[in-house]
Amino acid sequence: LRLAPGVLEGSAPSTSRVTRKRPQSTLATELLSYLGSPEETKMIRSARQIISTTAHRRMMMSTSASPTAANPTWLLSLLGYYGAESTRLRNAEAVFQTCIDQSSKKAWLTRGRVVNEFRPRHTLLLAHVWLVHKRLLADGESGKLMQEAIFDLLWEDTSMRIRSMGINELSVNKNLSEVQKYSFPLLVEYDQAMALPTKAEREDHLGAASWRNLWMADANLTVEHCMEMAAYLNREYESLQNLDGEAFYEGRIPWGQVPSWAGIKSLVDESEDEDAKLALEAELDAATDDDELGEWREALAVEWEKVLVAHQDQRKSLGEAVLMSNARVFIFGIFGSPSCAYVEFGGLQM
To answer: For 232, what's the count of Cα atoms within 13 Å in the CB-facing half-sphere?
Structure first.
């Protein structure tokens, strides 16, 4: 952007030309450059997505309240809301959220006997992300970009769960690396299982991988219990492969019921009476728990809110110059056209 003559020399600007102010977005750019932190970059990006979505909702509400109001679609298009990258990020969030919802159902912890600890819960979420990943492999370059966005969300969610356990901020990345060390081998095991020629062989290897990672090689768990999980994974894999692309990318994934384990002796040493009791519990679980999120996710949401507040307080002094200004920022692209947006910072703190 050019400044009016005389500005740099300290004299009054010429009245024959209009002085164009420096875009306020450069403040955010300089702040990120000063911080040099990928974590801060992710937080700013997340804030932009949240604010963009909020602005869209406000526009839509305003339009519905005033029938004569202009359709805001053209403005959203101008600001890049319907651009390829913006749409892909929203789709990735929608798809990843379905994975979270499906893996958070209480039935996994009750009749599924998944231990309510970090690694088993993470493994359960990872299994559903893997199913989505296999579906995206057939979509070429667009599927690859979508996979990257979903895995970015997975690791951000994992970092959130690590923080919610009270881990010091300086140790989060170290703990995340430890989680990734056992996550990637599990994905390879699942891939190797699906490469086998027969359904029986695939489910046998899926069951073994689930026993080692989801149930942490619990010797008291029966083979039949693990094989029920293998059948679930194989069934959901085939369902996603046949799912309509539009529905899939919009996050309208019809996940199947959590395995009932009905009529299956889950524990090696359980008696007939206990077996009958557990079968009744499984039947009740199937009727009540499948649409409910697990307590661990509910508790995590509360705990994460506390962690977020503390994290925001630490960043407040660094970010308030930009994020507390209620500024309306136009971000210009290389050629001087509005590339992505009008962003309203409504006193957001980070």
So the answer is: 22
